[in-house]
Amino acid sequence: MQIDVFTLVPHAFGWLTEQRPLAAVLGDELVLRLFNYRQYSPLRAGQVDDEPYGGGAGMVLRVDVVAAALDAVYGGAPEQRVLAFTPGGRQLDQELVEELVAEPALTLLSSRFEGFDERILEHLATDRISIGPYVLSGGELPAMVVLDAVGRRLPGALGSEESGLEESFSAELQGGIEYPHYTRPAEFRGWRVPDVLLSGDHARIAGWRRAQSRARTAL
Ligand SMILES: C[S@@+](CC[C@H](N)C(=O)[O-])C[C@H]1O[C@@H](n2cnc3c(N)ncnc32)[C@H](O)[C@@H]1O
């Protein structure tokens, strides 16, 4: 899969790409390309934003700048889905993540300032994505959230010590919440691990975990 990110701060993605799970799939199952809008700006001094028509606070990411960047990279409109991050978009959930993982390529558009010129959302993006009902200062964290959530679903992303199978919201748990985990010590400050987990009875343990998952999901 190829993911192209357009941003004003490509270096912000350094940390994420050095860590598992992304580091495990980079250059293999995942080709990640980072593009700086500023580099493709047709305006003097790499200008990328401007004051909003009608007045108001803040600056707006210009449509001609984003179009120039997409044209330069794709030679026109990209064939893949183009996700623009905006607080009012479709809220990201595991269902949407699975939908995105099935795509051969994605383009992620982040913005800063007051957001995108509306024509970017209308004509250049295919999807408006929100990572939650709150306002961040830019689209880099949302882009990283998508990168991480999608990247960890790619083959080879998770090591043998992690499993993507029975995670919260997975198909295996029918979209439910994961059961609780415990490790050593079996008792700490009087807080005991449930006896069933120490029983060695795998069928009982599996039943207990299913029941816990159902109860948490219901809650
Ligand atoms: C300061 S925000 C702009 C907020 C915008 N003026 C509004 O009221 O909806 C700047 C940029 O951060 C990104 N952003 C902020 N919060 C987000 C969220 N919850 N989900 C996705 N993107 C977000 C978007 O790219 C947005 O254009």
Strand content: 15-25%
The strand count comes to: 9
The distinct ligands, each listed once, are: S-adenosylmethionine
Overall structural domain count: 2
CATH domain fold name of the largest domain: Alpha/beta knot
What would your notes on this structure say?
The chain is 33% helix and 18% strand. The protein has 219 residues and is an alpha/beta fold. It folds into two domains: 2-151, Alpha/beta knot (3-Layer(aba) Sandwich); 171-218, tRNA(m1g37)methyltransferase, domain 2 (Trp Operon Repressor, Chain A, Orthogonal Bundle). Helix 5 (94-101) crosses helix 7 (140-151). The longest helix is centred in the last third of the chain and has 17 residues, at 202-218. Bound molecules: S-adenosylmethionine. The site of S-adenosylmethionine has 20 residues, from strand 5.
Provide the descriptors you would attach to this structure in a database record.
Alpha/beta knot, Trp Operon Repressor, Chain A, 2 domains, 9 helices, 33% helix, elongated, binds S-adenosylmethionine
